[in-house]
Design goal:
InterPro entries: Homeodomain-like_sf, HTH-type_TetR-like_transc_reg, HTH_TetR. The protein is mainly α and 228 residues long. It has a domain at 74-226. It is built from eleven helices and no strands. It has helices spanning 23-39, 46-53, 57-61, 67-90, 96-108, 122-132, 134-137, 142-147, 152-168, 175-195, 208-226. The termini are far apart.
Length: 228
């Protein structure tokens, strides 16, 4: 059980005003998650969001310059939340192999609501990350966005896990590459299982997340243990 009432603050310029600091801001976040999950990012607009929260488009624009930056915020929040969960789960574990196993369990099972964040539907946000997260960085402005710190939460999580890989096997030459591959695969394989089943072996499983978890453990430990 996670601690109750956690607050995750993102220190970058994806927002004009910190949404967690006001009731309207929190409503913008919660309702945008519901709408993007329902409509998809392409069909989502601030006009539709304003109608959903009973406010004006202008009020939404006071928090976010455009919907891309809102998506950046949501995905960044997700990665910060995953990093928090990872830290919590491995806090009392000494063995790096067991810590890495637990990390993969967390990465593969992030589609569950956390009672500590009542205004965030993590299950819906997880679906958004699976379907939409790559749109955050696959843009022409990725270098400028990187300088603004938009990907700090993702990079911090990757570094956190890569440190465990390096501790488990200091001779393994690709700790960051294998971790970033794992983080992407954790979502891609679930997406493929639902929409492009010929690209994966997870489509025949009733719980593709569990199958993906087993695959990731095989991938990670085979690579790390092979490099001695």
């Amino acid at each position: 059980m996670l601690a109750t009432g956690i607050t995750l603050s993102l220190n970058h310029k994806s927002y004009l005003r910190e949404p967690e600091g006001t009731e309207l801001g929190r409503k913008i976040i919660s309702e945008s998650i519901k709408l993007i999950d329902e409509l998809g990012f392409e069909q989502f607009t601030f006009k539709k969001l304003a109608a959903e929260i009973g406010s004006t488009e202008a009020s939404v624009y006071r928090y976010f310059e455009n919907k891309h930056k809102l998506l950046v915020y949501l995905v960044s929040w997700y990665w910060a939340w995953v990093d928090y969960r990872v830290s919590y789960e491995i806090n009392n574990l000494q063995d790096p192999r067991e810590r890495l196993r637990r990390v993969i369990d967390v990465i593969s099972n992030t589609g569950q609501n956390d009672p500590a964040t009542a205004h965030i539907d993590e299950e819906a946000l997880h679906r958004i990350v699976i379907a939409e997260a790559s749109k955050v960085y696959l843009t022409k402005d990725v270098d400028a966005d990187n300088k603004e710190g938009y990907f700090l939460e993702y990079k911090r999580l990757c570094r956190h896990i890569a440190d465990i890989v390096a501790e488990l096997n200091p001779n393994y030459p690709y700790p960051h590459a294998i971790v970033s591959t794992m983080l992407e695969a954790a979502h891609q394989q679930v997406f493929f299982a639902e929409h492009l089943p010929s690209l994966t072996d997870m489509h025949g499983h009733q719980q593709p997340e569990a199958a993906t978890c087993a695959f990731l453990k095989h991938l990670i430990f085979s690579a790390i243990d092979h490099s001695q």
